[in-house]
Amino acid sequence: MRVEHIAFNVHDPNGMARWYCEHLGFTVKRKVMEEPWAHFLLDEHGTFMIEIYGNSSQPVFDYPQIAPATMHLALVSKNLEADRERLLKAGCTPVSDGIEALPGGDTMTFVRDPWGITLQLITRAKPMLD
Prior knowledge:
By secondary structure, the protein is α+β, with helices and mostly antiparallel strands. It contains 2 helices and 9 strands, in the order βαββββαββββ. It folds into 2 domains: 5-53, 2,3-Dihydroxybiphenyl 1,2-Dioxygenase, domain 1 (Roll); 68-123, 2,3-Dihydroxybiphenyl 1,2-Dioxygenase, domain 1 (Roll), CATH 3.10.180. Helices cover 17% and strands 30% of the residues. Strand 3 and strand 4 form a beta hairpin. The relative contact order is 0.19.
């Protein structure tokens, strides 16, 4: 088995999908033009999808209250400082004060997207995926 996607039920799936495409480089693989307004967004390498949808009959997490270490979407960055600044200008809020060095030579930072979901921007000393 392999992972196809992970899903996020949100209050503004249309706006969030647009933002993820514009600022994170995702593309729409499939979308549903009525509730639940599901958007299957493919990463720029075509290897992983996230689903953003708005099912009003189901609860939506209070994403800003979820600790970054509890849940986050990790995105590989080639330039942490530039990507962090670009995303902050695009409406993200900082979670960490800057760039953190990790054991083994990796570096990372956390920001929250405009809907409160934590994004971990990470640069690996040795890539984990091809």
